């Protein structure tokens, strides 16, 4: 799942070497903290958050088989 977030993010940004994904696992949830170069924040978020929403939708769809709630936070 972490690789999925990282692959999608790297395809969207101008500085793919600065994409970092940190997985924070809690009791009932899994949070992927995505950080990118400051110049790429707009590309990850998109107009009115559409890219971020699409990224979260793909991750949620991929995590259907897990028992935990999976979210993506852009930091």
Write a short abstract of this structure.
With 75 residues, this protein is an alpha+beta fold. Helix content is 39%, strand content 25%. Strand 1 and strand 2 (29-35) form a beta hairpin.
Descriptive overview:
This protein has helices spanning 2-12, 41-45, 50-62; strands at residues 20-25, 29-35, 69-74. With 75 residues, the chain is α+β, with helices and mostly antiparallel strands. It has a three-stranded mixed sheet with strand order 1-2-3. It is globular and about 35 Å long. The mean pLDDT is 93.
Strand coverage percent: 25-35%
Overall spatial form: globular
How many helical stretches? 3
Helix-strand pattern? HEEHHE
Distance between the termini: 18 Å
Q: Which radius of gyration do the C-alpha atoms yield?
A: 12 Å
Largest sheet: number of strands, sense, barrel closure: 3 strands, mixed
Q: What class would the helix/strand composition place it in?
A: alpha+beta
| Helix content, binned percent | 25-40%
Number of strands: 3
In terms of per-residue confidence, which ranges show pLDDT below 50 for 5 or more consecutive residues? none
Overall average pLDDT:
93
Major β-sheet strand ordering: 1-2-3
Secondary structure layout:
Blueprint: H1 2-12, E1 20-25, E2 29-35, H2 41-45, H3 50-62, E3 69-74
Parallel strand pairs: 2-3
Antiparallel strand pairs: 1-2
Keywords: Cell shape, Cell wall biogenesis/degradation, Chaperone, Cytoplasm, RNA-binding
InterPro entries: KH_dom-like_a/b (IPR015946), KH_sf_prok-type (IPR009019), KhpA (IPR020627)
Main location: cytoplasm
């Amino acid at each position: 799942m972490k690789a999925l977030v990282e692959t999608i993010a790297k395809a969207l940004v101008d500085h793919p070497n600065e994409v970092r994904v940190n997985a924070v696992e809690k009791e009932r949830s899994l949070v992927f903290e995505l950080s990118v170069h400051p110049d790429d924040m707009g590309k990850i978020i998109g107009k009115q958050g559409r890219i971020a929403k699409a990224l979260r939708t793909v991750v949620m769809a991929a995590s259907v088989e897990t028992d935990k709630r999976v979210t993506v936070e852009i930091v």
